[in-house]
Amino acid sequence: MNFEGFIIHHTACTERDHQEEDWDFMILRDGSVKAAPSLRHPEYIHICLEGDFNLEYSLMDFYQKRQLFQASKIIIELSRRYEISPLYLFPHHDTCPGINFPWNALVIYPAGGYH
Predict the structure, then answer these.
(1) Which of 32, 83, 97, 101 is placed for a possible disulfide with 10 were both Cys, Cβ 3.0 to 4.6 Å?
(2) Which residues pair with residue 35 across a beta bridge?
(3) Per-residue pLDDT for 18 more than 70?
């Protein structure tokens, strides 16, 4: 499969087309991950974070930061597996995951390891 990148969601999204069956990976508040049996979309891999992530990183609690770290690990692994740049991250919508979402917290540079 030739994926173009990753779509990031959060469960606080109010968009009508935001359905659980659309997500490839759900990262729960406790840091556990629910994966779909197979990747569901031909162009993008969809990752959803449980909760409201329309916050600056400094305002997030331990659990939210752990969820972001889990998302980073998933992104870097799938980037290697499917030869996608881990920098190709896109929001689901203008309001999902929100204008305050800490995109830099998801970036892990493959050549330099974890940030």
Answers:
(1) 97
(2) 25
(3) no
